[in-house]
From TrEMBL:
EC number: 2.3.1.179
Record pathway: Lipid metabolism; fatty acid biosynthesis
Gene3D superfamilies assigned: 3.40.47.10
Pfam families named among the record's database cross-references: ketoacyl-synt (PF00109), Ketoacyl-synt_C (PF02801)
NCBIfam families in alphabetical order: fabF, PRK07314.1
Function field: Involved in the type II fatty acid elongation cycle. Catalyzes the elongation of a wide range of acyl-ACP by the addition of two carbons from malonyl-ACP to an acyl acceptor. Can efficiently catalyze the conversion of palmitoleoyl-ACP (cis-hexadec-9-enoyl-ACP) to cis-vaccenoyl-ACP (cis-octadec-11-enoyl-ACP), an essential step in the thermal regulation of fatty acid composition.
Active site per UniProt: 167
Protein name, as recorded: 3-oxoacyl-[acyl-carrier-protein] synthase 2
GO MF: 3-oxoacyl-[acyl-carrier-protein] synthase activity
Gene Ontology biological process terms from the UniProt entry: fatty acid biosynthetic process
Gene name in the database record: fabF
């Protein structure tokens, strides 16, 4: 039996670089950073006082009332807003979606840490205590709340799953959604990633792990600098990117516009360390080669690679080594960029927004830049073409995006130009 093909028919995003697909893409395309000083809380006790915050989010613009969002954690507000955009973009109405074999599959790493932090604050407050905990603390803090609320809001009674594989969550969610559609379990899947982990507790936790970029509180837009000699950690960010994935014939039958096709997916584990990647990149390379095999493609069929590119020494060197294993000599010809240089690290949503940028790169025949790449770390092994500081025009028929997470989780998705 011929394998069912999966296409993208809708997209939506909430991010530090914009709260629509066009706004976010234009920011990244033009090298505009979304990193700034933290405003969600007073960061004065922290060494790191910068992050990539979502600003000026208007949920009511998408028909989502403030009354409804008051009962949601921040990461859920993001997912529901991005889902509303994607559904509208796809041409579906709520009633039409309910008639389809529709599922929801989201990636999320940390979940409602804002609700958890607030709960602990009340618990430790002598004037409050256990009886003053907000009643919805439990449903707000659990990571499945975003997917559940999307299902509830749209009345979708198909499967509603949450996948947590650290920083690979968004990529793995899209890959698993693709496999589920291929299997025939559903025809339409609302899929992507969401995260809202900018709290004092979260930043402090990453700070003591020595994972965050330091020394840039007065120049936050220069903090995320993948593959640069002066990089010293990632920048924590937040947001959501959601796709409408659809079986090809189902999409064609309703006359849907098709952005691109999801061609392949691969997943692996380093089986090495809870936070550090394999230095030689061999574990992550398995995910890329598996994605290529799943797509029936050769390394030279890929023109653009959106890097995980976190701006940490361990990731950037290991990922470069991985590219040389997975793509061989073609790695030297690849257009590569890390859009985390503009967006910061959206953790469980990172792979989803980076997949969205791959779709736009194909659509616009344009490779977005890696900004702040002023002194490339060639001596450290980062010696490929990372598109420093200025984007370039290029014919892109297929793009790959990999996400490499704590716990050794690796995921890679391949997106290609749609051809009937």
């Amino acid at each position: 039996m011929e394998r069912r093909r999966v296409v993208i028919t809708g997209m939506g995003v909430v991010s530090p670089v914009g709260n629509t697909v066009d706004e976010a893409w234009n920011s990244v395309k033009n090298g505009k950073s979304g990193i700034g000083r933290v405003t969600l809380f007073d960061p004065s006790r922290l060494e790191v006082q910068i992050a990539g915050e979502v600003k000026n989010l208007d949920t009511e613009k998408y028909g989502i009332s403030s009354r409804a969002t008051r009962k949601m954690a921040r990461f859920t507000k993001f997912a529901l807003t991005a889902a509303a955009q994607a559904i509208a973009d796809s041409g579906y109405t709520k009633e039409e979606l309910q008639k389809q074999k529709t599922g929801v599959l989201l990636g999320c790493c940390i979940g409602g840490i804002d609700a958890t932090s607030e709960g602990f604050r009340k618990l430790d407050d002598p004037a409050a205590g256990p009886s003053r905990l907000p009643p919805l603390t439990t449903p707000l803090m659990i990571s499945n709340e975003a997917a559940a609320n999307v299902s509830i809001y749209y009345g979708l009674q198909g499967f509603s799953w949450t996948l947590g594989t650290a920083c690979a969550s968004g990529t793995d969610a899209l890959g698993l959604a693709t496999d589920v559609i291929r299997s025939g379990r559903c025809d339409v899947c609302i899929s992507g990633g969401t995260e809202a982990a900018i709290t004092e507790f979260s930043i402090a936790s990453f700070e003591v792990l020595q994972a965050l970029s330091r020394g840039h509180n007065d120049e936050p837009q220069k903090a995320s600098r993948p593959f640069d000699k002066d990089r010293n950690g990632f920048v924590l960010s937040e947001g959501s990117a959601i796709f409408i994935l659809e079986e090809l014939e189902h999409a064609k039958a309703r006359g849907a516009k098709i952005y691109a096709e999801v061609a392949g997916f691969g997943s692996s584990n380093d089986a090495f360390h809870i936070t550090a990647p394999l230095k030689d990149g061999s574990g992550a390379a398995l995910a890329v080669t598996e994605a290529l095999a799943d797509a029936g493609m050769k390394p030279e069929d890929i023109q653009y690679y959106n890097a995980h590119g976190t701006s940490t020494h361990a990731n950037d060197c290991g990922e470069t080594a991985m590219l040389k294993i997975a793509f061989g000599e073609h790695a030297k010809k690849l257009h590569i960029s890390s859009t985390k240089s503009e967006t910061g690290h959206l953790v469980g949503a990172a792979g989803a927004i980076e997949a969205m940028f791959c779709v736009k790169a194909i659509q616009d025949s344009f490779v977005p830049p890696t900004i702040n790449l002023d002194n490339q770390d060639v001596e450290g092994g980062c010696d490929l073409n990372y598109t420093p500081n200025v984007g370039v025009s290029a014919e892109i028929n297929a793009a790959a995006s990999a996400s490499l997470g704590f716990g050794g989780h690796n995921g890679c998705i391949i997106i290609k130009k749609y051809q009937d």
